[in-house]
Amino acid sequence: MKLSVPNIILIGMPGSGKSTVGVILAKRLSRGFVDTDLLIQTAQQRSLQNIIDTDGYLALRDIEERMLVNLHCSNQVIATGGSAAYSNPAMTHLKRGGVVVFLHADLETLHKRVRDFSDRGLAKCPGQTLDDLFMERFSLYSSYADITIDSCRLTHEEVCARIIEQIAE
């Protein structure tokens, strides 16, 4: 299937399915796949958690922003880190190059999926809970989204089908 959008950018909470859905979607659409968390880890030669432990969560957000505003690609499915939405310059740049899809998962689903919250490499304030993070980020994701897909009660394949449907409209 050929879609006219240059890139499909996936945003959402950790555990919403961005990386898994991204791989499947890229295969279905014969596109490349970019996981920005992996790009950061490769460029920094260390894990996201190590960046946070060593330099702090704000340093990770700065690194992420610089990487995203300098990301130039086409015909890709891009899975962003959960904190990408904190950066208006990064999100503005990504939106210029494609359609932004918010994979929304409710808190109950996220609690089931995210087992390693404290050492997952999340750019969050010390002591911040998953619930706090969800409340803080939800409006950011919603504001940048061109399309919102509920990823809670669907299989990954069904999420991909909904994305393709909505982009094709």
Strand order of the largest sheet: 2-3-1-4-5
Give the total of beta strands: 5
Q: How many helical stretches?
A: 8
Strand content: 5-15%
Order of helices and strands: EHEHHHEHEHHEH
Estimated radius of gyration: 15 Å
Shape: globular
Strand and helix layout:
Layout: E1 7-11, H1 18-29, E2 32-35, H2 36-44, H3 48-55, H4 57-69, E3 76-79, H5 88-96, E4 98-104, H6 107-113, H7 130-144, E5 147-150, H8 156-168
Parallel strand pairs: 1-3, 1-4, 2-3, 4-5
Helix pairs in contact: 1-8, 2-4, 3-4, 4-5
Structure characterization notes:
The structure is a single chain. The chain is of the alpha/beta class and 169 residues long. It is 51% helix and 14% strand. The protein has eight helices and five strands. It has a five-stranded parallel β-sheet with strand order 2-3-1-4-5, sandwiched between helices. The radius of gyration is 15 Å and the shape is globular. The chain starts with 6 loop residues before the first strand and ends with a helix. The model has no long low-confidence stretch (mean pLDDT 91).
Short description:
The protein has eight helices and five strands; from the N terminus they run βαβαααβαβααβα.
